[in-house]
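User: Thanks for the earlier help. One more: S-methyl-5'-thioadenosine phosphorylase. Can you show the sequence and predicted structure together?

Assistant: Of course, both are below.
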Amino acid sequence: MANPATTYPDPVQIAVIGGTGLRELPGFTQVATLSVETPWGRPSSPIAILHHPSPSSGKPIPIAFLSRHGLHHEYAPHEVPSRANIAALRSIGVRTLIAFSAVGSLQEEIRPRDFLIPDQIIDRTKGVRPWTFFDGGMVGHVGFANPFDAAVSAIVSKCGHSLEGDGVKLHDSGTLVCMEGPQFSTRAESNLYRSWGASVINMSALPEAKLAREAEISYQMICMATDYDCWHSTSESVSVELVMSHMKANSGNARRFVGAVLDELSKDEHADVVSGGRLREQSKYATAMTGKEGRTEEAVKKLSWLFPGYYD
Ligand SMILES: CSC[C@H]1O[C@H](OP(=O)(O)O)[C@H](O)[C@@H]1O
Ligand SMILES: Nc1ncnc2[nH]cnc12
């Protein structure tokens, strides 16, 4: 499209964050490109609004697409402006977020090019990434025992299995280690994570998943293994070349998988799941602990941008 619109009139409930090797979703009609400025700065890329026909009603369903590392992969994992990304998505109405990630495998049976839907995360980031919206005069605590959304995960899982036999191999659960990077792990670290029973490793799930939870957005990551990290005795250790070669070779399957998930989420029968009702107003109560006298004007202003009406 030569000149897509710069505004979109309706709330956009579903979004995809594309990671390494998945910087766009071809095959959809792009109807708008939004540049959103948030109190936490600008997102890592403009937000593309894509139209996707609902398989149940035929109605066009809007999908937001954001590129985690920027349009040209210019943001390292620790530089990704996750607060701006999540705030911008929430501000346009997003309540369900599918995040894609290239990961290293920590288990023999999770082979390069296999997909995995994680259900747990171990945080190995180093506290250098801003990781909460609730600071500077508004304290808030949200539950994170289950970092991913079980209802969305069940839908993603069904879609992945429907593509099996067609080149897609899916693992339904697993623990994801999110490390700081940008350097890859040492062999001792890789073996330590294996001894903890972890399944896969990346540098991107956090703070993205935590911020999505604070912003009341149901979040599920789809991982695609691109290497055996550096623990495997017979495989070559992870490198950018190795990651990109598997990503490139399997990008058709990755896109088909995400497309199938969007097809399914766009069905009327999932309207409740997609609208994120389970988390609605969670953050209003999570932040109610700071008395009005203790709140700073700046924190209230920023959080009121994210949650209009919560602090009136
Ligand atoms: C290029 S290898 C390391 C890089 O790949 C993954 O990116 P993403 O999660 O955005 O697909 C990993 O998390 C690292 O950022
Ligand atoms: N081995 C690895 N470690 C961290 N992030 C990755 N992304 C892809 N492979 C990875």
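User: Great, one quick takeaway?

Assistant: The pocket of adenine (ligand 2) is lined by residues 102-104, 179, 184, 201-203, 226-227, 229, 238, 243 (CB under 6 Å).
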